[in-house]
Specification:
The structure holds 2 protein chains of 2 kinds. Chain A is an all-beta fold. In chain A, 2% of the residues lie in helices and 54% in strands. Chain B is globular. Classes of the chains: A mainly beta, B alpha+beta.
């Protein structure tokens, strides 16, 4: 396991503290009056999301957090369980709604995602940047209706609602940018 | 480009005004070598090495060798180098102003600071009020003088004694003392515990304290000053101690500056100060980071 020195601390570094994975979210180097260097860090517990502030000295060392990204396929959701399967070893993993977070807006059966694990605990889902989803409900577009402006709300097969151009109809497949949650284009 | 343009013009005027101040006060401007074979060994300052010697972390070794009845007042503005120091207030290569006075102690340097900062601020058109990061700093003398003991009593959650015993002195300074100091006036934080005496004389009647101060302005540590220790045996023992502390941290000890120690025999009682020019420019230009007052940062090269 990699060992870091305090001088390696930087934004985004993932370290192990008391057996828990933390990410450094902010970082300041200080060195008062010819004294020892101090590294003031804001850190976030990757399991609980709780933020904390720590001061480290140059003699402090850290282990890297043992994080692993695994390619998984989304199988199904039932109640509060979101089930995924590892594509290499077919192992199934269940995530809670908290762990899934906003990714639920874009998860359709068989979608391939990356899940970041700390040991056996899933921490975070990375979606493909673009996913194709079917519009399941849309108001018909009335030509010349200026009141609706240049967009209208629709609902997708995942239950997610967003604004799309007026010409997008029920049953159409559209491409959505998962990073912004915004409409990109119609898919043929 | 325009922000950098106005900063660089102001930076140049600040340095020219500093120079004018010391020249008018009868100080001799000196230039000493930046590459030296034996620096002052310090537990927490790492040097950059070259095949000819170390890049100096301060011009003190050579400047104190010059200081004598022939040269009782000297100053220098030069680049200094410290390895591994990079942050919003640190560059590995930075500009220091140092000045030394024979037959003086650290109180005289406090007077110098007040006079010099007031002079420069006036010269560059800022008058007696410096606006820095949303704070107004009134620089009319006399400035506040607070001892480290008083500051710990006022601002630290643990006592100075506890902080020293648990090696948390620096932590308390950064987290509690520096934010506690009055930011509306420059402040001299004085009389450091003797463990941090470095090259300073111990206080008469208080051997647990050193005649050393740090100048703070707007929360920035701007200068470090001593009544100079001129006892070669005591200084040599302190250098050895610093080297031991280096070895405890797994760092290489530095060679002892023998000629410097020899020169202490002839050195008059004196006082000297290192004043951070980049941070002074930050204060007078309102810059948030040291990067903003440099032509280039190491990352931009």
């Amino acid at each position: 396991m990699a060992v870091y020195q305090a001088s390696d601390l930087r934004k985004g570094l993932k370290i192990l503290i008391d057996g828990q994975p933390y990410v450094v979210t902010d970082f300041t180097f200080t060195k008062p009056g010819k004294g020892q260097a101090l590294y003031r860090c804001r850190i976030k517990n990757m399991l609980t999301g709780r933020a904390d502030e720590k001061v480290y000295r140059s003699v402090d060392t850290f282990e890297s957090a043992n994080l692993q990204e695994r390619k998984m396929q989304f199988l199904y959701s039932q109640g509060d369980e979101w089930c995924f399967m590892d594509q290499n070893n077919y192992e199934q993993v269940t995530l809670t709604p908290d762990q899934v977070g906003d990714a639920k807006n874009f998860l359709i059966d068989n979608l391939e995602v990356s899940i970041l694990f700390f040991e056996t605990t899933p921490l975070d889902i990375s979606l493909p940047n673009f996913v194709e989803l079917k519009v399941t409900r849309a108001e018909p577009w009335v030509k010349g209706d200026s009141a609706v402006g240049n967009s209208k709300p629709v609902t997708l097969e995942t239950g997610y609602t967003l604004r799309v151009p007026p010409f997008v109809e029920e049953g159409t497949k559209i491409s959505v940018d998962t990073r912004t949650g915004e409409y990109l284009t119609r898919v043929k | 480009m325009s922000a950098l343009k106005s900063t660089l013009w102001l930076r140049a005027r600040i340095i020219q005004s500093i120079r004018r101040f010391f020249v008018e006060q009868g100080f001799l401007e000196v230039e000493t070598p930046n590459i030296i074979p034996a620096p002052v060994p310090e537990a927490h300052i790492d040097l950059l090495n070259t095949s000819y010697g170390f890049l100096h972390s301060s011009p003190e070794v050579c400047m104190k060798r010059i200081l004598s009845p022939d040269f009782p007042r000297i100053f220098q503005i030069c680049k200094c180098y410290r390895d591994g120091e990079r942050g919003h207030l640190h560059l590995p290569e930075f500009t220091l102003l140092e000045w030394y006075r024979a037959d003086a102690d650290y109180h005289d340097l406090m007077d110098d600071c007040e006079a010099m900062v007031t002079f420069v601020s006036d010269e560059v058109g800022l008058g007696n009020t410096v606006k820095y990061q949303g704070k107004e700093i009134i620089i009319d003398a006399p400035w506040k003088r607070i001892t480290v003991e008083e500051a710990f009593a006022a601002f630290s959650p643990i006592t100075l004694k506890e902080a020293l015993a648990t090696d948390r002195f620096e932590e308390m300074v950064v987290l509690h003392i520096e934010p506690g100091l009055d930011a509306s006036r420059p402040v001299f934080l004085c009389d450091y515990p003797s463990r941090f005496a470095s090259l300073s004389r111990l206080k008469e009647g208080r051997p647990d304290l050193a005649e050393r101060f740090e100048l703070y302005m707007g929360g920035l540590e701007l200068a470090n000053a001593f009544s100079e220790l001129i006892d070669p045996a005591e200084q040599e023992a302190r250098f050895s101690k610093e080297n031991e502390l280096r070895e405890e941290q797994g760092k290489k000890p530095y060679p002892i500056p023998v000629r410097f120690l020899d020169a202490l025999h002839a050195m008059p009682p004196s006082a000297g100060i290192a004043f951070g020019v980049d941070r002074f420019v930050m204060l007078l230009t309102g810059a948030e980071k040291i990067d903003d007052v440099a032509t280039f940062t190491p990352e931009e090269l």
